[in-house]
Amino acid sequence: MRRAVALLAAVLLLTGVAGCGGNGAEPGAPKGATLVLDFVPNAVHSGIYAAQRQGYYRDRGIDLTIRQPGESTDAPKLLEAGRADFAILDIHDLGIARERGLDVVGTMPIVQRPLAAVIARGSGPVHRPRELEGHTVGVTGLPSDEAVVDSEVSADGGDPARVDRVTIGFNAVASLAAGKVDAATGFWNAEGVALGRRGIPVRIFKVNEYGAPPYPELILTASRHTVDSDPELVESMVASTTHGYEFVSDHPAQGLDDLLAEVPSLDRGDQAAQLHALLPDLHPAPFDSGVLGEWAAWDLEHGLLERPLDVDRAFQLNP
Predict the structure, then answer these.
(1) Lowest-confidence range among 73-87, 149-163, 228-242?
(2) For the whole model, what pTM was predicted?
(3) What's the pLDDT score for residue 9?
(4) How many whole angstroms from its chain centre is CA 251?
(5) Are strands 116-121 and 183-187 parallel, antiparallel or unpaired?
(6) 310: buried, middle or exposed (CB in 10 Å: 19+, 13-18, 0-12)?
(7) Which residue of 8, 64, 237, 259 could cross-link 49, Cys pair, CB 3.0 to 4.6 Å?
(8) Domain spans of the chain?
(9) Residue 69 — pLDDT band, cuts 50, 70, 90?
């Protein structure tokens, strides 16, 4: 599955938010900046909300506005147009945006491993990826799902062409719960956790355990213009966000409280379970250029990218 990365440009205009919102601020005042999330707020964003709640952005001179996604806009285009300063992008979407001529740059990894997985019913016949041959796998219809299935089945010695793929949209939980498919693509930290909380036993095959490198799934991203014209803002944003995720790693209960304080509509039980699953891979760490090169080659092999990606240009490896 793939998450939409979006925010309505009209919303940004109506709320008066523009990129590099510090224009006209008094000397010494925090600089306004906008961050577009990749999906509705959840535990994977806990370090961002902790940094906001604990005052880390303000301490480094940033007045940060966090925007939730809409359905019909494109976060990379918002970055390129100066309608947002930062965005959380799925790494595949970052690569695709660059192929489309948008000069967006990854500034830090948010989560250290892929979140994509194939999730099989625990009571079903699929005990490992190669056993997907001859069985139904629910996919959203996005190319990234096809890449995950192909990678996992091939890496486990099976034939991806023998997998019966059924397009189910973003209904993996309902489809698996009802037994409509034997397995489905999804995120182990979201659909996998949700099924477990429903008491539905599952087997989770993470893509980095079957063919894919351990690439960072979500990336804090900025435009090349922002990186080059305001390196202090980028440095402060990265440092503050890193501090936020370090805080959550050291104090997960308080990090959860900070997330729920900022987004009270979230269900505490769901977010606590997601955060527990994510914590081993949520700690901040620098980009690994070798892993990024392997990821770019994997995306190219599976058709997510059409040509080799210049990793050194696409990511800020030495901020």
Answers:
(1) 73-87
(2) 0.89
(3) 35
(4) 22
(5) antiparallel
(6) exposed
(7) 259
(8) 9-112+215-314, 116-209
(9) confident
